[in-house]
Amino acid sequence: MTKFLGLTKRNLLVFWKDRLSIAFSLLTSAIVLVLYLLFLKGTFVDAINSVLDSAVDLKYLIRAEDVETFSNLLLFSGILGSAMITVSFQCLTVIVRDRENKVDYDISVTPIRRWQIILSYFTAAAISSIIMTGLILTIGLIILRCMGNIYMDAEAVLSAYGVLVLGSISATAFFMVVVLFFRSTSASGAFFGILSAASGFVIGAYIPISQFSDKVQTICNIFPASHVTILLRNVLLNGVLEEMDSSIGGLDNGLFTDSLREVFTFEAHMAGYNLNVDAMTVYIIVVLCICLAAMVFAYGKTYKR
């Protein structure tokens, strides 16, 4: 255990001393935020207002502030989902740099078992990812709360952090299997560019997954990051949806808020089935366990003696 903890500490120090790597890991989140402020926010607000305008009975019941809060939290869940992908991947580049610089040769001659070596990389990356995404969540909630009521109690906030921890660990395990096949930072950097561009579409940060065909939805929801983003969406937006439903006073029997949940993807659709919160949580944990076993196996095959 001492050897494992020592190697984990070393991997943490290597990552946090590289400020450029930290900046790049947050780049995608910054891009999503800029896109949101310039384009996406107005699109979502206008879409919701158009639905309210078509329903005269509801138009004057839901406050404009609640519509804006809904849009802000919706896009914030997309930012967090993208961050968990890009940050987790960037935290794993320590293992790629060690291979490129032949540091893994030095580690391999130490009396440490192979599974301890790979788990130390994984643990360090997961801890770094949790810290960075947790910081994004904390800052985002503070800013949104200063802008208005976000209708989240202490239990909802703790649930958001719980989903964030699960998402960061699962994303780290998933990408660890991918990173093990990279031998140079240039190759991992090229993949990171593709990942940054595609991740927002896969998890529905830019366009709700429900707008895609059934086959595309199934493909998107194969990745655990999509499920994590949906879980975040449920936790962050449940309060404001309940407030909207309360404002309507039951005139539509909850039809408006149910429509919002369906359009903006509050359940994962896979192979013709809709997965609720519990099913998505189980799916994420199962994929996490599979990835943990796969990364230990893959590292054993690529291990330098």
Overview of the molecule:
- The structure is a single chain.
- The chain is mostly helical.
- It has one domain (2-302).
- The protein is 79% helix and 2% strand.
- The protein has 14 helices and two strands.
- A two-stranded antiparallel sheet has the order 1-2.
- α5 (64-91) runs antiparallel to α10 and α8 packs antiparallel against α14.
- The two termini are 22 Å apart.
- The model has no long low-confidence stretch (mean pLDDT 83).
Brief synopsis:
Helix content is 79%, strand content 2%. The relative contact order is 0.14.
Shape: elongated
Percent in helix = over 70%
How many strand units? 2
Instruction: Report, as a whole number of angstroms, the end-to-end distance.
Output: 22 Å
Sequence of secondary-structure elements: HHHHHHHHHHHHHEEH
Query: What is the radius of gyration computed over CA atoms, rounded to a whole number of angstroms?
Result: 21 Å
- pLDDT averaged residue by residue: 83
Structural domain count: 1
| Biggest sheet statistics | 2 strands, antiparallel
Q: Which spans have pLDDT < 50 for at least 5 consecutive residues?
A: none
**Strand order across the biggest sheet?**
1-2
Note the beta-strand portion. under 5%
Main structural class: mainly alpha
Number of helices: 14
